[in-house]
Every structure is written in structure tokens, then in C-alpha cells.
């Protein structure tokens, strides 16, 4: 097998990498005394609790599910007693219930066993039961993606190991530490979805991960490792499909419509491990870094662990720290409360010092058009901003604001420090609201 | 109130800023300023300082009168001042230079909304305003190094009037009469290279402008090398046809703009009654920039061929 260089790529910004933790082997974070497990950690319908206050649960036991197709079950990440079932608001403002567990000493494991899979239906069921969601950040239910109605037309799997966000090295460590799980995961997906070729996209600042994965696969796997330029955001879904396969996913279409599915490398690794052990998704590899972290690390963290416990473990001083992000600095969300729990699709906790937390003052647009040059979707952010300020729905539609992937490149390069990416998000919400009003009228 | 700062992503920004960009432009203008002072004497420096001071003062006052925030910190007024001075003959009366500066800042820039909002280049428009209003002052040239022989006001035509017989090396280095900042093609090119390296401008824009003039004057039987080194072409192509506010947003649009500038410059120089056409060419293309912008929008990724404008 060979490592090939991608021939054509979409635009992006040259963002400093800050990959300080590439050589930091993943350590297990000691268990917290209490974990809060939200029952909505995916895109779709929230789960209903399967346990009640006072119940004892074992590690890996299912504690939430929903009969809806667009939903993924949630499992207990530690053994312990259900202290309470509370109402919970997640980072994007959606509300659901959350199970609060008082973690016990014994740490009993639920009787999990290796799933027996022969057909595609059984495979999709197993994917759902494993609690897998898109671990790259979107939290899209994996069984929905793999069970797409036109999945028979799909022949290509793109494994996203680009990890373009600054600071984060969790996926890189997964490539190094869990290479066999990745191989098993890829083989299972290809077998049951009948895929004939696989591309693994990795940015070229992670040469070792490329070598490791290239060696791990055998020629029959039809796996090609593709070296991507280290220009943020190569890991955006449409960007990585374009860079690895050359396919353009048209506006309003899914990758599966173009014969491709994309899976994050951590998702693939989890799947590979689940098929061997039957232990559902109860922990995540998290990079803890940022200028407020003197000893940056990669940690294996149980789902539901409060961010506060991670900061304490990494000796982050709350007094100096001004901002804590769930995720990386380009797309991560700032936390208002550091007791928030780690959820399935988190891959980093980034902490910034007080002085680097504040946003600089916004000044007038000077029409430098740098935002146009860096937009991977070839949008015109400055123009979109003006259209949104005028609430010009027609113009927003014409300029394809819906294509914005919120990568933040436009805000990053803007010399006037305008909040261009945020305006696009607001514009999308504005169009959605307008549309729902129209639908109501009709 | 939580102690944590909560703000939208991205949480990491580039070091780009408006003042950094303007500072780079000032740095890039420096070689040409030094040559101007060397060729025309201290008078060139005085005219430049008067223009810069008048631009800064008028920007401060008009912003105050309009109850807007003070924008002197972005350095754009300094850039306008230097560029206007570069477009003036060294012997210009200082009050004319100051008047031009006030016109550039107040009428052309601030009345249209300030930085990024003006549709015409302030320095170019002010030059044309002065040219039309004070044509005698604006066409009284000084011989190079005349100040060393106490022969300041000796009138001599600019090389553009008799382009065929001008010495190419003199044009390149700046040993000619003309406006303060435009005499040395070499110094301006140095600034252009600096701006390209700093990614403030795209070098394709001035190259297209200059290349178009080269090809068209050649086709028309003129001396193309002298044409590209003479007059305000280098200054206009590198520093004014690349102005953010008044030129198209996309690269395709910028190149159309530069090509149009080249064509109009050639037509005015070769067939027009004025010897120089760069300012008029840029101003005319400034006016159709919104149209070019409209026709050269980017095609979003995967949005299909049809773009209803």
C-alpha cells in the first residue's frame, strides 16, 4: 500500500497547529465521585431513562434509550447508584434528562459479550447498541449513516483522521494506540456495507500516524492513506471527501448520495473494539491543552465526568484561566459552567488564560476580501454579513449561506475582527425560522 | 455572572489587523519617499508631511463632528496623505496640498462612511480635483536635483510628453521630473515586492495593469518599456489599483479591474489630450467596481452552475 498526496484541496486558513501533546501517551483519568450522563448526546430524539433514583447500575449498562430510529442509547460509564435524574441543558441549548450517578468503589461491569453479527441488519443493530455517534463532533447517529436508504450505491469509506483543529491530538493518539481497533472497524464496515475502497485522510503534520496506519492494513483491504496539507479545515466533511476522492458533494446532498460515507477515526476505532468486546461507548480520549494548561495531556475520560475534575487533574488554576472550551479553539464552545460533563462527541478541553480569552474590538470592514480567499466553501462572508444585517433572506439564499460549515476561517483571518462565522450561524437560524413561519401559514 | 468568558467560535484569531496592513503599506511607500526627497530635496518631505498632517487632522475633526469614534489608530489617513503627496509636484503650494488632503478625507472618504465604504480612491480623486482646479500648480515641474543648484522652480516637461526620447535608466531609477512619489520605478517596485511578500496585495493585480499597458503601447508602436516606467503607472498599479475599498473583491474581478485600468491608461496616454492617464483610468474603473463585483461573485462549492444574479 502507499501513502499518496491529495491532488486538489479546498481552501482554508494557515492556523498555528499547537500540537503539543503528540508524544503524550493517553493516561486514564481517575474516576470521579459523581458523573452526570446526559440522555441526549447525539443528533435526534433524546433518550428516556431506563433507570430510576436509587437503582444500582453497572459499567456499560444501558441507562437510556428511545424507540425512535433517529436516536442512540446511552450507557452507564461507571458503576454506581442513581442519585437523581435531573433536567439538563446541553452546550447548544437543547434540554434533556440526565442521569446523575454516585460512583461506587466496586466498579462492577455489566455482563457484556461480543455481538454475533451475520447480516447487515444485525450489524446496524450492533452499531446502535454500541452507543456510537459521530465522534468527530457532529454526533450524528452512526447506524443512521450506515443504514442510509441508498447505502447500496455507496462504495467508498473515507476515514477522517485529519484532526485539523489546533491543539487536539486525541485522534492522532487513537491512530497510534488503537491501530488494530481501527483496522477491525474498517474491515467490519466494508464487509457489512459492501464497500470496495477506503481512504484515510491525515494532515501531513502527522507523518507517523500515516505510516502506522499504512502498515497496519493489508493490501486486500484496499486502503489508501491520503496525505492532506495541514491547512485548516481539511477535516471538514466536504473538504476531506474532495481531497481524498475528488468528489464534490452538491449543495443539499449527503455524501452518501455521491457514493461516499465519512467516519471519524475514533468512531471506527470504537466500533472495532465494540465488535471484539461488546463494551459500549463509555469513555473518550480527550486532549487537554491551551495556554492555561502547563502540563498538557491526553486522557481517557469516562462519559459524564465533570470538566472541573479534568482541570483539577491537569493542575489548571481556575484563577488564571479565563475561558474553557469544549473542543478546540476554532470550533469549540465556550463553557459557562465548568461542572458540565464530557459527552460522547467531545475530543478536547481547551483552556485559555484570562488575557487570551477576550475578543478584540470589532472595526469596520475594509473589503480586504481575505475571508473570501480562505472560505473552503467559496462563500463571500463579508457580503453575507451585510445581507444578514439587512435580514435580506433572498440574498442570503442566493449567496448559499446554508453551505457554511462554521469552520471559523473567515473570523480567523479578518483584520477588522468581525464575527463573520457567527453571523453566518445567525443567518442560517434566521432563514430556518422564516421558513417555519411560512410553512405554518401554508 | 459567571467568571468564564463565553464567546462565539473561533477562539483563536490571526494577527491580521487593519492597522498592521496600513503600516505595511506605509513601510512599502518608504523607498519611493526617500528617492523623492533625494531627487527633489527637502521640499518633497515638507509637502508629504503637510499632506499627512492635513489628512490626520481632517479625519479627526470630521469624525468628531459626525459623532463617530476616532479612527486615526488604523493609520489609513496617513496612507492617504502619503499617496496624495506622491501624486503632487514638489513645488505645489502647501495650502493647495492641504486643501487636497481635506478633500480626500472629508469628501471622498468620510462622507461615504469612512474606511472601506468609499467608492473612489481618496488620493486619486483628490489629485484629479486639484488637477482640474489648479492646473497650473499641478503641471509646474521641477528638474531633478534642481534644489542642489538653487534652481528650484525651473519648469521642465515630464518625460511622458516626449516618451520616445526619454532615457529608460533615468526613468527606472528616478532621475526625471514628475510627482514626488512616482519618479522612481525601482523604489515603487521594491515596495510592491514587500507588499506581495506580506500578502497585503496580490502581485497579479499590478502585473496585469502594467502588462496590459506594456502590450497595448507596444502594439500601438510606442516605446513600451519607457511607458511602464514613466509617469504614475507603477505608483497607481501597485498602490492604488490594489486599494481594498475601491476595487473588486474576488481575484477574477481584480484582474478585470486591472486590465480595464491598463486599457484606459493606454488610450489616454496615446490618443488623449492629457499626457498621463493613470488617475483617470483608476477612477473610471473605481466607478464600475460594483458592476464587476456583481458579475464576478464566487461560485460556492457544490452550488451548481446556475447563479441567478
Structural account:
The complex is a heterodimer of chains A (442) and B (309). Chain A has helices at residues 120-129, 142-146, 170-177, 179-193, 207-216, 237-245, 265-277, 307-313, 354-357, 370-374, 381-389, 393-398, 409-413, 420-441; strands spanning 3-5, 27-28, 34-38, 48-49, 56-57, 62-65, 74-75, 80-89, 95-103, 156-160, 197-203, 223-228, 260-264, 283-289, 297-302, 321-326, 333-334, 348-353. By secondary structure, chain A is of the alpha/beta class. In chain A, the strands form four sheets. In chain A, strands 2-15-14-18-16-17 form a six-stranded mixed β-sheet, sandwiched between helices. A five-stranded parallel β-sheet of chain A has the order 1-12-11-10-13, with helices on both faces. A four-stranded antiparallel β-sheet of chain A has the order 3-9-8-5, with no helix packed on it. Chain A is globular, with a radius of gyration of 22 Å. The termini of chain A are far apart. Chain B has 14 helices and no strands. Chain B has helices at residues 18-40, 42-65, 76-86, 94-109, 122-133, 135-138, 168-173, 185-197, 204-219, 224-229, 233-240, 251-271, 278-287, 289-295. In chain B, α1 (18-40) packs antiparallel against α2. The longest helix of chain B is centred in the first third of the chain and has 24 residues, at 42-65. Chains A and B meet through β16, β17, α10, α13 and α14 of A and α1 of B.
Let me know the average pLDDT of chain B.
91
Radius of gyration of chain B: 20 Å
Low-confidence stretches of chain A: none
Percent strand of chain A equals 15-25%
**N- and C-termini, Cα separation of chain A:** 57 Å
What structural category do the secondary elements of chain A indicate?
A: alpha/beta
Shape of chain B: globular
Q: Count every helix of chain A, treating DSSP H or I runs of 4 or more residues as helices.
A: 14
Amino acid at each position: 500500500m502507499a501513502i499518496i498526496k491529495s491532488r486538489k484541496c479546498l481552501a482554508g486558513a494557515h492556523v498555528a497547529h499547537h500540537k503539543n501533546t503528540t508524544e503524550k501517551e493517553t493516561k486514564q483519568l481517575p474516576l470521579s465521585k459523581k458523573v452526570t450522563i446526559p440522555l441526549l448526546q447525539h443528533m435526534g430524539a433524546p433518550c428516556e431513562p431506563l433507570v430510576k433514583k436509587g437503582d444500582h447500575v453497572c459499567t456499560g449498562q444501558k441507562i437510556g434509550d428511545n424507540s425512535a430510529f433517529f436516536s442512540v442509547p446511552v450507557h452507564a460509564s461507571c458503576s454506581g447508584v442513581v442519585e437523581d435524574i435531573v433536567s439538563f441543558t446541553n452546550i447548544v441549548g437543547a434540554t434533556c434528562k440526565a442521569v446523575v450517578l454516585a460512583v461506587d468503589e466496586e466498579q462492577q461491569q455489566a455482563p457484556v459479550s461480543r455481538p454475533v453479527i451475520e447480516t447487515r441488519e444485525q450489524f446496524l443493530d450492533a452499531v446502535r447498541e454500541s452507543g456510537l455517534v459521530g465522534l468527530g463532533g457532529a454526533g450524528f447517529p452512526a447506524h443512521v449513516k450506515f443504514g442510509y436508504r441508498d447505502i447500496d450505491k455507496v462504495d467508498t469509506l473515507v476515514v477522517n483522521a485529519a484532526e485539523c483543529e489546533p491543539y487536539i491530538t486525541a485522534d492522532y493518539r487513537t491512530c497510534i494506540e488503537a491501530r488494530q481497533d481501527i483496522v477491525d472497524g474498517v474491515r467490519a464496515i466494508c464487509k457489512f456495507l459492501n464497500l470496495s475502497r477506503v481512504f484515510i485522510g491525515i494532515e501531513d503534520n502527522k507523518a507517523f500516524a500515516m505510516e502506522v496506519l499504512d502498515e497496519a492494513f493489508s493490501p486486500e483491504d484496499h486502503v489508501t492513506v491520503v496525505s492532506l496539507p495541514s491547512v485548516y479545515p481539511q477535516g471538514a466533511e466536504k473538504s476531506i471527501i474532495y481531497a481524498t476522492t475528488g468528489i464534490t458533494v452538491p449543495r443539499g446532498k449527503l455524501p452518501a448520495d455521491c457514493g461516499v460515507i465519512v467516519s471519524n477515526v475514533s468512531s471506527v476505532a470504537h466500533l472495532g473494539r465494540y465488535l471484539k468486546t461488546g463494551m459500549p461507548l463509555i469513555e473518550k480520549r480527550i486532549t487537554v491543552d491551551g495556554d492555561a494548561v502547563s502540563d498538557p495531556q491526553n486522557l481517557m475520560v469516562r462519559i459524564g465526568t465533570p470538566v472541573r475534575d479534568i482541570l483539577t487533574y491537569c493542575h489548571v488554576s481556575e484563577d488564571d484561566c479565563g475561558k474553557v472550551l469544549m473542543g478546540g479553539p476554532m470550533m469549540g464552545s465556550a463553557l459557562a459552567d465548568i461542572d458540565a460533563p464530557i459527552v460522547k462527541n467531545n475530543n478536547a478541553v481547551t483552556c485559555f488564560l484570562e488575557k487570551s480569552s477576550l475578543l478584540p474590538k470589532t472595526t469596520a470592514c475594509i473589503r480586504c476580501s481575505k475571508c473570501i480567499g480562505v472560505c473552503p466553501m467559496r462563500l463571500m462572508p463579508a457580503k453575507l454579513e451585510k445581507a444578514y444585517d439587512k435580514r435580506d433572506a433572498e440574498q442570503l439564499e442566493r449567496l448559499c449561506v446554508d453551505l457554511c460549515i462554521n469552520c471559523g476561517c473567515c473570523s480567523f483571518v479578518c483584520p477588522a475582527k468581525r464575527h463573520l462565522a457567527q453571523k453566518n450561524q445567525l443567518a442560517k437560524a434566521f432563514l430556518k425560522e422564516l421558513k417555519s413561519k411560512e410553512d405554518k401559514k401554508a | 455572572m459567571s467568571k468564564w468568558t463565553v464567546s462565539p467560535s473561533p477562539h483563536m484569531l490571526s494577527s491580521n489587523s487593519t492597522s498592521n496592513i496600513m503600516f505595511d503599506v506605509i513601510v512599502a511607500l518608504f523607498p519611493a519617499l526617500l528617492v523623492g526627497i533625494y531627487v527633489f530635496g527637502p521640499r518633497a518631505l515638507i509637502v508629504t508631511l503637510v499632506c499627512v498632517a492635513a489628512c490626520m487632522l481632517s479625519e479627526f475633526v470630521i469624525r468628531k463632528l459626525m459623532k463617530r469614534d476616532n479612527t486615526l489608530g488604523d493609520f489609513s489617513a496617513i496612507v492617504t496623505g502619503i499617496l496624495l503627496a506622491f501624486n503632487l509636484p514638489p513645488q505645489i503650494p502647501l495650502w493647495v496640498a492641504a486643501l487636497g488632503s481635506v478633500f480626500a478625507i472629508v469628501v471622498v472618504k468620510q462622507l461615504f462612511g469612512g474606511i472601506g465604504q468609499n467608492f473612489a480612491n481618496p488620493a486619486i480623486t483628490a489629485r484629479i480635483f486639484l488637477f482640474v482646479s489648479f492646473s497650473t500648480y499641478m503641471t509646474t515641474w521641477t528638474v531633478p536635483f534642481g534644489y542642489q543648484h538653487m534652481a528650484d522652480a525651473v519648469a521642465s516637461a515630464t518625460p511622458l510628453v516626449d516618451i520616445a526620447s526619454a532615457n529608460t535608466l533615468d526613468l527606472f531609477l528616478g532621475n526625471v521630473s514628475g510627482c514626488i512619489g512616482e519618479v522612481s520605478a525601482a523604489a515603487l517596485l521594491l515596495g510592491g515586492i514587500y507588499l506581495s511578500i506580506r500578502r497585503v496585495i496580490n502581485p497579479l493585480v499590478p502585473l496585469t495593469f502594467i502588462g496590459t499597458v506594456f502590450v497595448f503601447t507596444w502594439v500601438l508602436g510606442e516605446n513600451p518599456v519607457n511607458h511602464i516606467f514613466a509617469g504614475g503607472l507603477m505608483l497607481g498599479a501597485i498602490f492604488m489599483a490594489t486599494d481594498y475599498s475601491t476595487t473588486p473583491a474576488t481575484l477574477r474581478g481584480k484582474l478585470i479591474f486591472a486590465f480595464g485600468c491598463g486599457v484606459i491608461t493606454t488610450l489616454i496616454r496615446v490618443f488623449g489630450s492629457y499626457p498621463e492617464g493613470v488617475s483617470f483610468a483608476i477612477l473610471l474603473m473605481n466607478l464600475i467596481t460594483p458592476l464587476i463585483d456583481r458579475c464576478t461573485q464566487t461560485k460556492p462549492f457544490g452550488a451548481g452552475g446556475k447563479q441567478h444574479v
